[in-house]
Design brief:
By secondary structure, the protein is an alpha/beta fold. 33% of the residues lie in helices and 14% in strands. The two termini are 45 Å apart.
Length: 580
């Protein structure tokens, strides 16, 4: 590897050619402040717009300061990151940003998570020397998933990078010029009127409160305090390996039992694991896959557990609506079963039931309100909390989450297998489906359920699984930009896959837009994924069709998988939408 010799703050070092000053400084633990810089190693995401000017440093021999996040090192370069000139310029950049920023930190949803706030504290800024006019745009509350506040936008353009380069949705770009500039949809459109998928990755990378989730905590608290309501909760698989981070637990700590206990202490009348519905989803999805294979149906089949990519193909690939599985997501299947089967079992009027989902994904909030998901003109999931919202709710209650005793989820809708747990990571849904489809297609017992070839964190992965005499070709993609590549192959008739799994977020649900902020540290994503597979490996049952409570549900209520009743309650349809 070719290197160059440079000097940073009197320290000589050799740096690989092509690296930036910022990267070189990190090699010797010199911390240069940044705001617009975004680097998610392993996912090829690097934002180097140099727009915030917070990382300015001095290069000896140059008249002007340079942004360290984009300036490449050269042989013999001498750099000062701590010179009076550089420090004063960085301070002025932050003060200018603060001068046009709302002073409502105490009530801001990003309070103590705001990178601008942290940087101001780090630089010791207690006074702002610039006063004058401030932006005064209307806050966009149009969507059910996220809130856009242009007045808090610092034009770092991280969200634009994520939306356009990674997710390839093309919703966000610079609006206006100069003092009034902010990032948003073209023509000042509301988010709900665009092709936004509500994946929440823009929220995950926004350093301030310019993009936040719609907060449903107060509505959940009100429901819990209403004696006329029977309130139940369901918890997605990715929550258990991430929420501990909000309570100073190591990334990847498994907190399944603590989640069940914490929900009961908050007053929920029913405490269920969405993993139960994930097993139910696999019985329907594997049945659909087997049916398509045996009867010459449309292939490849696409998994449809991610509501963000459902919106993605409805807007971007409306000509492919016959490709995805018609199965509802586990969240919606659980809500449906709670308001039908569970309500009948407990003799509760479904109108008195409130189903609260705790999800890693902001798109789940919008999914819950989709009319296509309704049964008998009734929403089956009423409120959705992100992992962050639920963590905040526990903190408000004074819950010592890390030291809670472990307990089980309620029976009747509580049993789950390892196949359900792995729904939380990229490749997990298709692996779970293959475990069941293998036995159904061959009539043989699958002894090794670990399909290692389906695992990993590469953006696009391919694998061939031998099922009897058949080679099942599988494609896996996470991040919507990678999904686009596979969908374009299908559109062009070039796809050789039988089944494709797509997840909108980096790493799948473990990297969802509603998870604890990882600030670009992909090691956190890896640890969450490792924990998902650990929980799977520790399960006695690891195939969805071995879930006895799910089988009992079919026996008592649904009939056979992929049958008439199952279609009515557990399947949905998709709608072509304009690309805006």
């Amino acid at each position: 590897m070719e290197t160059v010799k440079i000097t940073i703050n009197d320290i000589e070092l050799r740096v690989p050619k092509g690296r930036t000053i910022l990267e070189a400084a990190k090699m010797i633990d010199i911390q240069i402040p940044t705001l617009c810089y975004l680097n998610m190693e392993g996912f090829h995401i690097a934002n180097q717009t140099s727009s915030c000017r917070v990382c300015l440093v001095e290069v000896v021999g140059r008249a002007a300061l340079v942004p360290s996040c984009s300036e490449k090192v050269t042989e013999g370069m001498v750099i000062r990151t701590d010179s009076a000139k550089a420090v004063a310029a960085r301070r002025m950049s932050v003060e200018l940003l603060l001068s046009n920023h709302p002073k409502e930190c105490l009530t801001c949803q990003k309070n103590l998570e705001c990178e601008l706030q942290s940087l101001a504290q780090r630089l010791g800024i207690t006074d702002i020397g610039f006063e004058g006019e401030m932006m005064n745009y209307e806050i966009d509350h149009s969507s059910l998933s996220l809130v856009k506040n242009p007045n808090k936008c610092i034009m770092c353009r991280r969200c634009e990078t994520m939306c356009n380069e990674v997710q390839t949705c093309g919703i966000l770009s610079a609006i206006s010029r100069g003092f009034d500039a902010y990032v948003g949809p073209a023509f000042h459109l509301d988010m709900v009127d665009t092709s936004c998928t509500f994946c929440g990755q823009c929220v995950a990378v926004c350093p301030t409160g310019a993009l936040t989730e719609v907060n449903n905590v107060r509505d959940v608290v009100d429901a819990l305090n209403d004696p006329s309501k029977h309130v139940v909760a369901q918890v997605a698989p990715a929550i258990r390996v991430a929420i501990g981070e909000m309570f100073d637990m190591d990334p990847g700590t498994i907190t399944t039992g603590q989640l069940a206990t914490s929900l009961r202490r908050l007053g929920f009348d029913g405490v269920f694991d969405t993993d139960f519905a994930a097993d139910l989803t696999i019985l329907e999805e594997a049945s659909e896959l087997v049916h398509r294979i045996k009867h010459g149906g449309r292939l490849p089949i696409l998994t449809s557990c991610c509501p963000a990519w459902v919106r993605f193909f409805e807007h971007q690939f409306p000509d492919l609506l016959d490709v995805p599985s018609t199965c509802k997501s586990p969240q919606m299947m659980m809500g449906t079963i709670v308001k039908t089967y569970y309500a009948e079992k407990l003799n509760i009027d479904p109108k008195d039931l409130v189903v609260v989902s705790i999800m890693p994904c902001l798109a789940k909030k919008a999914e819950a309100a989709r009319m296509e998901m309704d049964v008998d003109s009734m929403h089956n999931v009423d409120l959705v909390l992100s992992t962050r919202e639920f963590g905040a709710m526990l903190k408000e209650a004074g819950t010592n989450f890390a030291h809670l005793p472990s307990s089980d989820f309620d029976s009747i809708l509580g049993e789950s297998t390892g196949a359900a747990v792995i729904f939380g990571t990229t490749g997990g849904v298709i692996e779970a489906a293959v475990r069941t489809a293998y036995e159904w297609l061959t009539g043989e017992v699958l002894k090794n359920v670990n399909f290692e070839q389906l695992r990993g964190l590469e953006g696009i992965r391919s694998a061939t699984v031998k099922i009897g005499d058949m080679d099942l070709n599988i494609g896996i993609a996470h991040e919507l930009g990678n999904a686009r590549k596979l969908l374009e192959e299908i559109r062009q008739g070039k796809s050789h896959y039988h089944a494709i799994e797509i997840m909108a977020c980096p790493g799948g649900c473990i990297g969802g837009g509603g998870q604890p902020y990882h600030h670009g540290d992909m090691e956190i994503i890896r640890k969450r994924q490792e924990a998902i597979y650990r929980e799977d490996a520790g399960k006695t049952k690891r195939k969805s069709h071995e879930n006895q409570e799910v089988l009992k549900l079919y026996e008592e209520y649904l009939g056979e998988p992929y049958g008439e009743m199952a279609h009515k309650l557990l399947h949905t349809k998709y709608t072509a939408k304009d690309r805006i």
